[in-house]
Amino acid sequence: MREVVIEEDSLQWHYTSTAGLLGILATNSLWASDAATLNDSTEIRFGMDLVRSRLPTRLEEASAWADLAGTRIDGAEVPAAIANMLGLVEGFLLSGGLYVFCASLSGDSLSQWRGYGHGSDAGFAIGLRRDPLDYKWPGHVDLSLGVDSAVDRPLGMSLHPAWRDVIYDRIEQETAADRFFTSMASIMARIGVPSGNETDIQRGLMDLASMLTWSYGELVSSMKDEAFAEEREVRIALGGPHLPGRANLRTGRYGPLAFVELAAPDQEPVHFDSHGIPYQTFTTQGLGVLPIEVVRIGPTPQPQMARDGLHSALARYGYDNVQVVQSEVPFR
Length: 332
Prior knowledge:
With about 325 residues, the chain is an alpha+beta fold. The protein has one domain (about 10-325). It is built from nine helices and twelve strands. The strands form three sheets. A six-stranded antiparallel β-sheet has the order 5-6-3-2-8-7. Strands 1-4-11-12 form a four-stranded mixed β-sheet. Strands 9-10 form a two-stranded antiparallel ribbon. A hairpin with a 2-residue loop joins strand 7 (about 250) and strand 8 (about 255-265). About 35% of the residues are buried.
């Protein structure tokens, strides 16, 4: 194993159990959990409540996109119309439409070890390079079939996986929420109300609804109460109408939990246009290995046993060059 100086802040640290570590190594994929089943059950709802709290201050912008069908809404009706629309979006996001992979900029956090080092079991922190757009999910490559394909259109406006910093500061959260209203108003002004035959109108409405859904999902998944700021969390959020059907199940503390796999990149990227915009993704099987630089073993009464087992697992799954280090937090 190589010995190098670890640049802590250049990595994203994903804390997990022994079972989680083995699952990630064996599948060469990161496991993004159903947003509704994150450790803090209020996480996504926190962002949703905050966005709604900003609505009374953004009525003029909100009215520009309140009715995707093009019927003008009276100013007094805007809050209820927007709240109803967001309620529909929230229902979808909280019923298997949004998945989140969590990590931290802190590689040796006591609070994280307490959360993931269960009892006398060793927890692990996987140090990942911050490589944007190097991940995909099952079916993502379908987008390369072309924007007119019946297969890829529902995925065309999905959240593409990329690292995002979690926002803890209330003022920054409110600013981000205000940008959401402004952005949606700008999109509506630029695109306008869909027109043409019934098929074109329905397609346009679906695209607009998708823009709203994924912009909202991206926003609310990036906010947490400031009480958790010491976690220094970063996230990959992804969503799509087909993801619930592609989800796998893993063991959780309180029963089975749904997750989707973010596979390691393949060797050669696929280039294509999405609505005329160049984009890059990767083919389906995830032949490459994950960008793991180091794995840190958490506080444990058997550090040498944990180290030996970790070395064996890394070698078994092709991660021979990953550095192994021990937490400096004492076991209690």
